[in-house]
Specification:
With 188 residues, the chain is mainly β. The protein has 1 helix and 12 strands, in the order βββββββαβββββ. 34% of the residues are buried. This is Polyisoprenoid-binding protein YceI.
C-alpha cells in the first residue's frame, strides 16, 4: 500500500465537513465525500451536528504504523446544528466557550492494528481539558481512493461541555459520539 500523507483527519474528533487542504503529492482530500459529525441525545432524542472548519494532518502507512501520526485542530465556532439560535447558545460560555477556547485538538501518540482496523491513541483537548483517548478507525484503499471511518465516544462532562444547570445529564446525555468519514483520492 502507498504511503499516505494528507491534510485530512483520522478522528475528531473527532469531530466536520469542509475546511480541508491537501498538501502533498500522495493524496488529495475529497471534501464532498468527507464529513465529521457529532451525535448527542437531548431528552433521549439523537441530535446531529457538525463543525464546518478544521485543519488536520495525517501521515499514514499501514506498513509503517510506528511512523504514522494524526493531528487535528477544530474551529469550535464553526459548530452547526442547523439552527443559528442553538449554534449561538452552544458556542457560549456554558458549552464550548469559543471566545476563550477557540480550538479543540487531537494529537496521536500511536496507531496500532491490522487488516484495515486501527486503534489511534492520543490526547484530545477540548475547552482546556485534556484526556487520553483511543479512536477506533477503519482504513481501506478502494481503487484510487483511501477511506477512513471511525467513531469516538466521549463524556462531555469530562471536558466541561455543559456547565451550570447544563451539567445535569437528565436533559442532555453525557455521552457524545464523534463520527468521521475521510475520503482521499490518491494522486499518481
Amino acid at each position: 500500500m502507498k504511503n499516505l500523507r494528507t491534510k485530512s483527519v483520522i478522528v475528531l474528533a473527532l469531530i466536520c465537513s469542509g475546511g480541508w487542504i491537501a498538501n502533498t503529492a500522495w493524496a488529495q482530500l475529497d471534501v464532498a465525500k468527507s464529513a465529521v459529525s457529532i451525535v448527542a441525545k437531548q431528552l433521549g432524542v439523537p441530535m446531529n451536528a457538525k463543525f464546518k472548519k478544521f485543519d488536520a494532518t495525517v501521515n499514514f502507512n499501514p506498513a509503517q504504523l510506528a511512523q504514522s501520526s494524526a493531528k487535528v485542530d477544530i474551529d469550535m465556532a464553526s459548530f452547526d446544528i442547523g439552527d443559528e439560535e442553538y449554534n449561538k447558545e452552544v458556542r457560549g460560555k456554558d458549552w464550548f466557550n469559543t471566545a476563550k477556547y477557540p480550538k479543540a485538538t487531537f494529537v496521536s501518540s500511536s496507531i496500532k492494528g491490522t487488516a484495515g482496523k486501527y486503534d489511534v491513541a492520543g490526547k484530545l483537548t477540548i475547552k482546556g481539558h485534556t484526556q487520553d483517548v483511543v479512536v477506533a478507525a477503519t482504513y481501506k484503499q478502494d481503487g484510487s481512493v483511501n477511506v477512513f471511518d471511525g467513531v469516538l465516544p466521549i463524556k462531555r462532562n469530562a471536558f466541561s461541555i455543559g456547565e451550570g444547570d447544563w451539567k445535569d445529564t437528565s436533559v442532555v446525555a453525557d455521552e457524545v459520539q464523534i463520527k468521521f468519514r475521510i475520503v482521499t483520492a490518491v494522486k499518481k
